[in-house]
Amino acid sequence: MTVTSDSPEVAVVRLRRARRALITSHASPDGDAIGSELALAELLEHLGVAPEIVNRDPAPSYLGQLPGVDRIRVAPRVTDEELDRFDLVVTVECPGLNRPGLDRLDRRPILNIDHHLANPGYGEVNYLDEHSPAAGEMVWKMFGAAGVVPSPAAATNAFVALSTDTGDFRFTNATGRAFRAAAEMVDAGASPAQVSSWVHESRSASSVRLLGEALKTLTLGRNGELATMAVDPEAYRRAGALPQDSEDLVTVPRSIAGVRAVALLKQWQPGVVRVSLRSKGDLDVRSVASAYGGGGHTNAAGCTVHGDLGAVRADLTRRLDALLEETT
Ligand code: AMP
Ligand code: MN
Question: Is 0.85 surpassed by the pTM of this model?
Fold first, then answer.
């Protein structure tokens, strides 16, 4: 029988029955993914469950100072044998079981923790709350439900999750609920100044060089409402950058006055284009991401498209133009 609820209790009850749990999140993890995983690992230890965090991709450099980040194992796959050593898989921030980029996770019972719209509830237990500002806030509520006092490290990791997913409490998900959770995290030892210096003043030099490469490709369309940018393998090479160096480039075109939608196309391997979409206001870029088999939120969505970078950019521009046209 599967259980689906927006209550943290269901997740805690399921965790208490586990002994060894594999925690994972989506490929190309962001602050909410990494922060939630690390806070969750601490909660599991308090509950007597041995956690191991496995991600397909490394944390971006701006998250490299989070407490406990070294405990995350980065691996392109988990073997059946390894999986069978766990009695539970916990996915955080994954609206589909394909999001971690690790195969066969469903060999084991799954606890699915997510705040995305349209998570189908693929777990044995699904703790889903689309009104939550960040998965890290949902994990934070689990501490309360379990009666576990979070350490300053857990509060810090949860705060990283919440502050990055709300764009430093500026996006539409910066609700009263987000601020209430933030206040609790700060009271429990999270330092906003420290987190801000990690997240905003600890970039790799190559990610800043890559921004320069990306900006050379910036194109504004539809009277300045649509911004697109692309980084190809040559751009990564010139900047000396890695895929994780492109995670937050998309925020820059979004800052331009009049821009309502942004597409950043990232091609690291030939023929595979990762697309990040951002928008302002009611403009729903998730609908465009979904058309390519991706997902996300109204104002932040993404997808992976197979094809040539130029062709994908043209096709995406057409679809975004149409969306902007519909909602003028
Ligand atoms: P990103 O642009 O990678 O920061 O992703 C923005 C949002 O879109 C996040 O909420 C992601 O979970 C979601 N997203 C990104 N790529 C995909 C994908 N291939 N499939 C489903 N959702 C995605
Ligand atoms: Mn999130």
Answer: yes
